[in-house]
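Quick one:
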Amino acid sequence: MKDTDNIEPLVADVVYGFVTSCLLTLGTIVIFTTLDPGLMVLAVLPLPFAVVGTLLLARRVTPAFEAEGKQAGELSAVVQDNVSGMKEIQVFGRERQEYARIHGMSHRYARQQIHARKLGA
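Output:
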């Protein structure tokens, strides 16, 4: 798995969403302040709750995504080792054992991905 595959969604989604949200919030505050300061106060009141909610969600979700990243690295390392050592695996007749090992690891990785996504939803 390439690191660029992990970075691309971050840049494309998270950074874009963050910049868009900041600009919309700033624009809303400016317009509301110009039109009606009382309305601006009402619009800004929920922001602390949103920030606290986001921080609580991040605290809960971060360990799941870290575990997913660790499993992805382990799976990638085992696949890399198996590909480079294919002849040895075949010579010693370990194809079934290595298949079962990769299958189990990929199944655990998929479950971890689902778990992380459910927490983040």
